[in-house]
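As a warm-up, study this chain.
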Amino acid sequence: MKRAIMHEALSDDVRKTILGFQRSEITEHHIYSRLSRSMKDSHNKKILKTISEDELGHYNFWKKHTGEDVKPDMLKIWRYFIIAKILGLTFGVKLMENGEKHAQAVYDMISKAVPGARAIEKDEDRHERELIGMIQEEKLKYVGSIVLGLNDALVELTGALAGFSFALQNAGTVALAGLITGVAAALSMGASEYLSTKSEGSSGKKSPGKASVYTTIAYMLTVLALVAPFLILNNVFLSLGITIFITIAVIFFFTFYISVAKGLSFKRRFTEMLVISLGVAGVSFVIGALIKVFLNISV
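Now compare it with the structure written out below.
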């Protein structure tokens, strides 16, 4: 009888909002549960199972105030499960949690109808963040090596391709020069990362070999992406324009990835990397033009 009175006391807006909370909690319960079952690492498996049980507890807390069962969002379950498996567990989990932040005004409204709801929600959120921070993932351990390879490739090769474009003015020749430059730089960067990581000794947590491989692969993939337009198109300046667009897209995607996975500022890092990459490209383009004019070199 007491539960029935509690349910009837909720306004339509509050009930609708709480039912939305319930659906989010039961959906995330299933996401974490499914991820836990798919994990081979016992440490991560245990953490994900704990978070899954916490989410079910959240769901039951809200259910006490609505008296209704809510079905999970199956599309969301599959979407975040696939994102976590492809782009990494930490990224997938943090992306989902960032999307579930509720506005202060919403909590103000709920707290009036459900005393103690805000305090409970804050405690649960803090506990979740602590658990998510305990997830161990190799991809994040070597993210510094990936960033090193990707950033250097973007800055160096975008600038080189801009200079080659004006100096050589032939798409095939620019592609050849870009590939030679890129492959040599990738191998050099990989070797440097190996020696740098190895010099850290036992204090370093990374394997020098793996750090080198991550750096080299990140550099090589970026090289292929930036040179591709020159291999496909005959117009050298159209190819350069597409390469610059690819540069911006890669910076945007990877900065977003890092900002979510590491909890860093997206806007500041994106702006910084964009200015550096395009600034170097612009300077290199001017240098290529000056070399062509003053040395009178044609290909």
